[in-house]
Sequence to fold (201 residues):
Amino acid sequence: MEYIGDVFYDYGGGLYANITNQCPCRCEFCIRDMVDSLGDADSLWLKREPSLEEIFELLGEWNLNKYSELVFCGYGEPTARLDDLLAVAKHVKTNYNIKVRINTNGLADLLNGRETAPELAGVIDAVSISLNTSDGAKYDALCHPVYGEDAFGEILEFTRKVKEYVPDVTMSVVGGTIPAVDVEKCRRIATNDLGVKFRVR
Ligand code: SF4
Fold:
């Protein structure tokens, strides 16, 4: 198949999957507005989305036994293609001894119009959710979600649900993008209110 951008790439020793550039947010710190690629990728901007068959074909070019983790991340929100993501994750979990993680903005339920957390059970080992800031108005101002201020509550609700189905759940903020007082508020939301791990990335 023709080159459409890097669908898989090696980043810091992990295998990363970039299956979509769709995203309902426009975060002011988004790395895709700063550079076109990460790791060993040439471009993470996809000329078009690969079909599921093409994703499997491209995955076959990689030696998965070399990696301890497959991470759905990329230049977009991976749960915008949740069905395809889970099909690939199931294949990998069935055939390889490798962990599967999703890096997400936590808006999967709104994107897919259904409760998605139960679908991750037994297929996804870890979910890293971008909390980004400490309330709905600030999230709207920083990340500009198409859902407006309601997005923030949805992210918290998704996190509450996903920790019932996925063993390793982390919320994160991007260091240097919000005041220290808000970082601490975020830490409390993640660890005290929601009972998940917290990371400043
Ligand atoms: S949610 Fe992620 S991909 Fe989307 S704009 Fe924000 S940082 Fe970029």
About this structure: The radius of gyration is 16 Å. The chain has one domain: 8-200. The beta strands are 8-11, 14-17, 69-72, 99-104, 126-130, 168-173, 197-200.
